Fold each of these.
Amino acid sequence: MLDLHEATSPEVGQAISKGAVAVLAVGAQEQHGAHLPLSTDTVMAQGVARRIAEAIGGLLLPPIAYGDAWNNEGFPGTLSLSPDTMRAIFMDIGRGLSRSGFRALVIVNGHFGNREPIALAARLLKQETGFPVFHLDYPGMEQAANDICDSKPAAPTFYHADEVETSMMLALAPHLVRMDKAAAEYPTFPATFGMEAISLSTFNKSGVFGDPTSSTAAKGEALIARIVDESVKLVDLFLSDR
Amino acid sequence: MLDLHEATSPEVGQAISKGAVAVLAVGAQEQHGAHLPLSTDTVMAQGVARRIAEAIGGLLLPPIAYGDAWNNEGFPGTLSLSPDTMRAIFMDIGRGLSRSGFRALVIVNGHFGNREPIALAARLLKQETGFPVFHLDYPGMEQAANDICDSKPAAPTFYHADEVETSMMLALAPHLVRMDKAAAEYPTFPATFGMEAISLSTFNKSGVFGDPTSSTAAKGEALIARIVDESVKLVDLFLSDR
Amino acid sequence: MLDLHEATSPEVGQAISKGAVAVLAVGAQEQHGAHLPLSTDTVMAQGVARRIAEAIGGLLLPPIAYGDAWNNEGFPGTLSLSPDTMRAIFMDIGRGLSRSGFRALVIVNGHFGNREPIALAARLLKQETGFPVFHLDYPGMEQAANDICDSKPAAPTFYHADEVETSMMLALAPHLVRMDKAAAEYPTFPATFGMEAISLSTFNKSGVFGDPTSSTAAKGEALIARIVDESVKLVDLFLSDR
Amino acid sequence: MLDLHEATSPEVGQAISKGAVAVLAVGAQEQHGAHLPLSTDTVMAQGVARRIAEAIGGLLLPPIAYGDAWNNEGFPGTLSLSPDTMRAIFMDIGRGLSRSGFRALVIVNGHFGNREPIALAARLLKQETGFPVFHLDYPGMEQAANDICDSKPAAPTFYHADEVETSMMLALAPHLVRMDKAAAEYPTFPATFGMEAISLSTFNKSGVFGDPTSSTAAKGEALIARIVDESVKLVDLFLSDR
Amino acid sequence: MLDLHEATSPEVGQAISKGAVAVLAVGAQEQHGAHLPLSTDTVMAQGVARRIAEAIGGLLLPPIAYGDAWNNEGFPGTLSLSPDTMRAIFMDIGRGLSRSGFRALVIVNGHFGNREPIALAARLLKQETGFPVFHLDYPGMEQAANDICDSKPAAPTFYHADEVETSMMLALAPHLVRMDKAAAEYPTFPATFGMEAISLSTFNKSGVFGDPTSSTAAKGEALIARIVDESVKLVDLFLSDR
Amino acid sequence: MLDLHEATSPEVGQAISKGAVAVLAVGAQEQHGAHLPLSTDTVMAQGVARRIAEAIGGLLLPPIAYGDAWNNEGFPGTLSLSPDTMRAIFMDIGRGLSRSGFRALVIVNGHFGNREPIALAARLLKQETGFPVFHLDYPGMEQAANDICDSKPAAPTFYHADEVETSMMLALAPHLVRMDKAAAEYPTFPATFGMEAISLSTFNKSGVFGDPTSSTAAKGEALIARIVDESVKLVDLFLSDR
């Protein structure tokens, strides 16, 4: 594994000549209640991406610390990139990796709003350059959360500042978690949620969806291990015919 | 000072209500020879930005870790965003800060190739929203380098993996510097440099421009102090009539 | 209800003065096996949209007969619009409706690949003009399919040329269905499906996902009734506070 | 002839292997007075396109039911796509046909405002992919109108809701024509018409240009026959050297 | 009249305060046979624009010397701007004039291929800023050519390097005309001309359409006078209600 | 040397077959005080470009008479193109030259604000087509101004309506210079100049930067000769390996 934040150019040159796979975490600058930092999605995605890179001998790129978090802009500190800007970032990085001779790019996405621009860039890069891009959204997380966590999510597969995310943050960056400020909120979703452009702050007070109070680093560690295992299996499959 | 990587949404909300100024470092993922990491420009810009934020009580945004480094793409590990993508990032962030009620944005740029998209975004944001953007390119660096460093730059105001950058990295992130690999190179610039699109790797072997061998953390500390002092003076001027 | 394919300008003028809601079906030109026409998604969306328009007294726009069906381009007859073109269509129509004095737009989407450009246009129109856009993806379909159909879908909520779609087509446009050519196929999805850009034709032979052989018009009628009921309930909620 | 609204994917596959030519009608959603439907241009273009497809054994695509009708937006029910959106639609469809192995695309345009984006897309597709696009604007219509109709157009080659269009609609879709509401209007064109952006509603009251009162289905049939004959002759010429 | 090539800023400031109308000629860099210069369309448009500016007391902008001449690119020396670039130029200039306080913009177009981007920019500027743009394509030219010239055009209203253009050039810039090289060519237009993207050089040998041999400066003078008279009448009408 | 304003298509055809190099001057429509015309930058760039073309046997294109002069828009008569429009112009012309068989393009830039779009287009054209573009910004001007002129510039390398520009205009177009209106102004630059978007008119009254009063044609001639000599040397170097 090579962390491209720390590595030098000659080290990357050597890795490329052996068939380097780049791993890129994509997060967000987004409110996560009073107990988690604005960088939560980035920290988590980078944490998972680092372990995947370690497992596959990949080259870990600096993470993208901003995402499309438009529906959380009602809360201070959230800062979004538009979907077009997000796509442009992935296109530029993908083209650069392709020109440089990388074998493939694995994107580890930590924020729901980034899914579409990532998937679209993957498709367009394949069409334009043939460069293979694989994108992961914490595979296996639903099952793992079910198995490991005590509280229920506020909505199916909706994990935001809850036990899942808080536990993962306790495992990855405990100094950034204020457990004394963790408090549950189970907001009532509007019946039309997902069918019109609704800001989350119109029905969510604290920025928390679910109950983070029983979060522990051990649970976080277990969640990460499950996600990483599942991810590595899928990446291996993806790379096997390339 | 609030580091928005670590801060929570309510903390930012409080800061905004008191007139928050955002500080954003912009770096690059770019080769810096065999002794400096690919993240050199990001680490340096973030280091300077952090001290400026401390001095002015600003809110430090997560840095932009990619820049437009097209002319270094001949060296492995360099990854560029296009000028249009860079501009889009600054436009999105500027619009978001403006909507959120921030007072101003100060951009600390650590990479030459980012100057134009930053300046253009500053102009367009002013026209579109009136939001004030201030952008700094290490003010006072030339004089400081002259005063503090022993070696000459490879070309006037051209500091790349040389004594200036290496000293600053020794001050900011010594664990990322391989001084044993530091070696001087004074490449001969083509007479037509700057008048056509020339890849640096066509006339530069090691990725180093100048002589990093006499770099020290103390020199780096002195350089940073001078740049920060000068920057804070200018930021204060900029903010004084806003 | 006014069908804007048939209506005249003065008729629309009258309707607008009373607070007209536009209803727009979005389909696709996409392969649907040997027994369903390429227009299947358009016919279904328009059929559902028509009943919604009837129920709410809406103005039914001509349907968009092309969608983003890139992953079915391996089958002849599929023709896609890019996500950017799709978005542009919705933006133009939304702006026009807003300028014309319409009260709102309800989009009835019949094709998975259109979801993102529709949702994005809804968001952008709200930001740009405040014009309210509501978008439906056959609400209640999963439960209804479960209740009404005999066969299982090839994957959860994946209905393509199967018993669900074939039954709905038998209810809406029986002359376009070749039941004698209907045959089941339960393709094995690649484990990495949804994580890379995969053409469906690489693992699906016939263009059918599931088993259309037991389809009937009565089932189709029941499915449509359930979807329309659920849709109308949601549209009423959406309109109630506008 | 294959109608791609009704055809299945395997049927198109067979046709392509024999050298399929696609035929695409482009209309508009535009006011046509009190006696003709908003879809008039689409119905007419599709009617003509269908006969051309029949004559040449072409594959008839679903029509584009929206056009650039900006200068009729002063009348309710008109809904425009911008020229850029129109062009994007033709580019996407042309690229798709080219990738799919079609031999050529024939566009039958039924609305003046669409001419430029169609011609521009044809040019760009030729440059980009070499794919041949032929575009028809009712060739021979002026002579035919002169020969067949009793009334004069409101301006040379300006046929809008007049005897020409009403007769053609009576031939193609009589149920959509309200002859009892047909009334003549010969508006006075501003002297600067065509030299500045003028909305038609500023000098036209009823939406009619000319005199539709003597329209008959027989005249419409004769007009269509002449246009189709002329079109087929030109298409044959176009295809002969491809 | 003020020629903005020669005028100073204070002079323009004075003119604006009295309600300045800008006049902009748009030409092309396009082949015009062996006897006329590549700048023919620019010279002619600027000549006509200058007289219009004189007549109305307008401010004459520097001409746009490049146009969209794609179908003449088969001949050396032709250089085109794309329609999008042309539009962007007019949008930028129109916005600038509007911000500066100009009363209106009159565009004098000398090249057929520029018509659409000019008309589109005029429409968009009106929508975006309300700034009035008037665009002229040599009004009255057909009648004048008929009255004054001896030869026939190669096609109706198609004047290219023929008696009309050559005479006008003899009147405006005789030193740029090589009458000894003037020779007639009446090319046979393909039957499908205007219906597909056809380069003129595929059926035109010399670049001349028509017969320039009987051209004289006196005829050119007469043509220009007629066009200018007609133009000024129309501009006055346009300006009268502004 | 061939001036493409005057030349005919066959003449260019001949030149291309021998390896033609195009020379393009880029100026601005920008205020230059009360004594110099708005076209100053265009006249100067074209004057220098003409001599370079003469020296290298190049083909002189019509100049681009508009530039990006946004920071002078506070003065009447300034009209800007956006950086994107500027870039598009250079891309279109570069592509056209490349398709036409030209050997290279030399751009002579006469306005600071155009530098970036020119350099960017040069880079993108090289990547897209390999077509070589060389861009000059009056090389050697600083040294020449120092040697030849009596007054100091208002800021280092900042020459605007001062002795340098006025002398060059006296040499190139004396009829456009009003020496009786020439007056010195040495404005005080804001300390934050270049770090935020500042209109020059906020700190500059007359539009003059420096002292034009001692300007002479002889000095202008000398300046031009030095710049042209230096330019030709560089162009020869650039062309030598192509």
Amino acid sequence: FEYLEKELESYRDLPAETTDGHLVVLRGNIELSQEIPAVIAHGGEGIGLFRTEFLFLNRSEPPSEEEQFKVYRDMVQKMIPAPVTIRTLDVGGDKFVPEINLADEANPAMGLRAVRFSLKERRLFKQQLRAILRASAFGCTRIMFPMISGVAEMRQCRALLDEVCAELLQENQPFDEDVEIGIMIETPSAALVADLLAEEVDFFSIGTNDLIQYCLAVDRGNEHVAYLYEPLHPAILRAIKLVCDAGRRAGIRVGMCGEMAAEPLYAPILLGFGFTELSMNAACIPRVKRVIRQISRQVGVDVLEQLLKLPTAHEVNRYMEEDMAHRFPDIFGPPAI
Amino acid sequence: FEYLEKELESYRDLPAETTDGHLVVLRGNIELSQEIPAVIAHGGEGIGLFRTEFLFLNRSEPPSEEEQFKVYRDMVQKMIPAPVTIRTLDVGGDKFVPEINLADEANPAMGLRAVRFSLKERRLFKQQLRAILRASAFGCTRIMFPMISGVAEMRQCRALLDEVCAELLQENQPFDEDVEIGIMIETPSAALVADLLAEEVDFFSIGTNDLIQYCLAVDRGNEHVAYLYEPLHPAILRAIKLVCDAGRRAGIRVGMCGEMAAEPLYAPILLGFGFTELSMNAACIPRVKRVIRQISRQVGVDVLEQLLKLPTAHEVNRYMEEDMAHRFPDIFGPPAI
Ligand SMILES: [Mg+2]
Ligand SMILES: [Mg+2]
């Protein structure tokens, strides 16, 4: 056990590169800038998901543009030269912002949340976009919109962003005019029209938690149906494939920032899909890196091809467990006695 | 106006046949056997969706097998020779059964509902299946499962159905051993694996209300996000296309029983998809039939081909409205002054 910890630590400064030379960038998901040292300590290259909700929680007033700017700038500077992907406010659903008057909703997960909320509260949204753009003058910054359901919503975000850029230019506020804009793919509709969305943005990041939840119509927080929440459901594999294929054809980056990215057993599958960026909680990075460094991308491609033929999540899971334990007993086999 | 009513009435005994000879069967959605005369009066050929929930509502005890059997038999006999599609209990979500102890759920629409509920309450489920199967001895009966999310769930239903059939055989209870088994396609996952599901069942019926809701992650009952509930969203058109293509390849029937089926403006699109069965509230049948009898299937195919190229629901809607008003001013044009 101690040996494994040492081994994991030794990976910190090594790239997440497969035995056949396929490079994957592993990044951290964070909520606070205080988590940055842990990301660096675990060998994370940049932030794949900064959840800005924390800034808005447990306070009587939303943070000002200036306050947000300082937090974002601080983070961006600390990560130089690696990028920081800042996700705009993702409230609603399971999250909660007391000072924002959220209506009672029968199904909050399918309600006024995330980018829908931002597009309604435009003053707040523009403030956040201004703060992020201003931070982009200080280091590599990316903007990511959550819960985009289609092209129309993305274009509304783009229009607002253009407005904000024009304002900043007029005020002579510096910002990175080439800042990359991306979206979370977490609604089934976004996966289904990924090819259209790929024309509108610089990158995708698949948010598996919500994508799985909506695809299967299963609230994973509901104990009565949690058994139906299956990351390896054939429909989920196909949805992810739609997104990866669309991204590849359009020549944009496709990453993943949901919990699926942090599960070492899934790493071969994600290699098979062709992901080049995975973002996860810092503590999970070494274990995923360990798997990636010990297998080839080709194994992932072969495994995925087999998995895509199976009709149920149960069979996909069993195949993965058995096949991986057989191919890589050191990593996935039963613990030696 | 009176003239239109007369015209609509004159269609009652005519088939819903396009000008190029494509036949569509129009059926009724009902909750009570008392609605059968209205279905027949409006020219409906059979019942495409009998919602059995009504039998379970507002009472202290669920209905016995015998009580259900009599209701189903009565209905099946009244519709001879047309089929009656009986959907198994679809409670949960927006529905409510007081005597069944439903847990409080944060997002009931993604909770323990429909077939999930039935698979948990197996005694109730078997009782209902027995009642339906016994009714099948008296006329053309079909069984339809709601909210199927994938192959595994369908196989569980099939296994239970086989159990019930074996019991009935042993008891010498007559039933139709060739009764057709189908599923609602209303979760995005079911649409994504429609080809796999097509191997397991005799027919699909697309439930557009829920399919749209889950695909877009929009609770249409929520006024704050109702603007995002768009039947003609490109992702919805693609999901429907996946289902229709899978059904056609497998040689099984694909129908639609959601509200989309009842909108005359959508009829050309549904012809384009190749639907041969549409089920709706009885009162909507004549208007849909009127459109089908005045256009060709080829128009639908051409229109759909154009629609599938458009990136937003807004553009799809505008194209439909303008193109249809232009091609068929009598049906879709502005009212004459
Ligand atoms: Mg999310
Ligand atoms: Mg439904």
